[in-house]
Amino acid sequence: MDDCLFCQITNKKEPANILYEDDEIIAFKDIYPKAPIHVLVVPKKHILSVDHLKEEDKGLIGELFLVAKKLAKDQKISESGYKLLFNVGEGGGQVIGHLHLHLLGGWKK
Ligand code: AMP
Ligand code: ZN
Fold first, then answer.
1. Per-residue pLDDT for 109 more than 80?
2. pTM score of the predicted model
3. 13, 25, 90, 107: which could form a disulfide with 8 (CB 3.0–4.6 Å)?
4. Is the beta carbon of 96 within 6 A of some atom in ligand 1?
C-alpha cells in the first residue's frame, strides 16, 4: 500500500518514534498525543479497520493487545491504568485507513 502512511512507517519510508517492533507488529508514539502517553499499536499487514478483520486475523488481534499490555508496562502506566481504543470508520473517528490500537494513559491520579 504505497499511499498508506502506516505502511510507509512500517517500511521505514516515513519516520516515527518506534517503541516496539516484531515480525507482525510495530508500535510508535502518536505524533499528536491526546494523552501524556499515547502509543499506536499497528499490525504490519495492511488491514483497513476492525470492520475489515477476517477470521484469519484472530491471532494477530490477540497479539496487538499483548503488545499494548507490554508497552503499558514499559511506559509505567500498568498500575495507574490506561485506555485501549479502536476508532472504526469515518463515523467512528478513524482518520488513518490502516488498523491501529490506541494506547492512552499517564494522566495524573
Ligand atoms: P485515528 O483517528 O484512529 O485514525 O488515529 C490516527 C492517529 O494517527 C491520530 O491520533 C494521529 O495523531 C496519528 N498520526 C497521524 N500521523 C502520524 C504520524 N506521522 N506518526 C504518528 N502518528 C500519527
Ligand atoms: Zn497500510
1. no
2. 0.98
3. 13
4. yes
